[in-house]
Design goal:
With 198 residues, this protein is α+β, with helices and mostly antiparallel strands. It has a single domain, classed as 2-Layer Sandwich (Beta Polymerase, domain 2). It contains 3 helices and 11 strands, in the order αββαββββββαβββ. The strands form 4 sheets. Strands 1-2-7-6-3 form a 5-stranded mixed sheet. Strands 4-5 form a two-stranded antiparallel ribbon. Strands 8-9 form a two-stranded parallel ribbon. Strand 4 and strand 5 form a beta hairpin. The radius of gyration is 22 Å and the shape is globular. The chain starts with a helix and ends in a 22-residue tail after the last strand.
Amino acid sequence: MIHLEALQQALEVALGSRLNTLVADRGEITITVSAADYREVALTLRDDPALRFEQLIDLCGVDYSEYRDEPWLGLRFCVVSHLLSVSLNWRLRLKVFCIDDEVPSVASLNEVWSSANWFEREAFDLYGIIFDGHLDLRRILTDYGFIGHPFRKDFPTSGNVEMRYDPEKKRVIYQPVTIEPRDITPRIIREDNYGGLH
């Protein structure tokens, strides 16, 4: 616990007013910063001798529009990064909310930590978050003709288009989804002696 308190104090000193929130819970620290300060904070976290977060080990997008099955009243899209300081043996979760829900964007951290490259491409592909300054921001998991961003909570379960091979054209084509959306209610069978229990 002393280790966590030392990290918290180092963060408060190094980041000062750029620190929007700091939550220490379950042996981990999560900080939230504004989109305007995001890249500058990342550089401080990497370069400050009291922090030395040399590695970005993960980065992902989050859609808070239906948080815990309840409406979320804050900004919708968030980028969450997990950082590691090998030299000081501590970890940190860094969160930043995109200020525009229609066109969510934050600065790219690719020049701060090169490992951000594919993580940011994945968040762009799945959530539609634009990383300003990323040199190669294109889809990485879905194909180039894919419409929409499948991890957004308003994305239809069946998707928008489907692809199939057309033997006449001798190529893959896209067409509107032919699956009929339906609600499936499971059939419940009640037995008095189910499983041999009396």
